[in-house]
What we know:
- The structure is a single chain.
- The chain is α+β, with helices and mostly antiparallel strands.
- It has helices at residues 2-30, 53-70, and strands spanning 37-39, 43-46, 49-52.
- The protein has a three-stranded antiparallel sheet with strand order 1-2-3.
Amino acid sequence: xxxxxxxxxxxxxxxxxxxxxxxxxxxxxxxxxxxxxxxxxxxxxxxxxxxxxxxxxxxxxxxxxxxxxxxxxx
Length: 74
């Protein structure tokens, strides 16, 4: 079981490395600065996805509000 999990983990790392290299190579053809991950004070960019901190905070707050209103802790 441990051997299977280790093989799956290594395969996923190899796949992610290949995807990152392919993304970097194709993105660098269009732009001089191809970044896989970049941070600023308002968001995180991973590949072409933009994650805003405000949206994440709003989603977490909505989940907390719904959890506390739906369930009773004993």
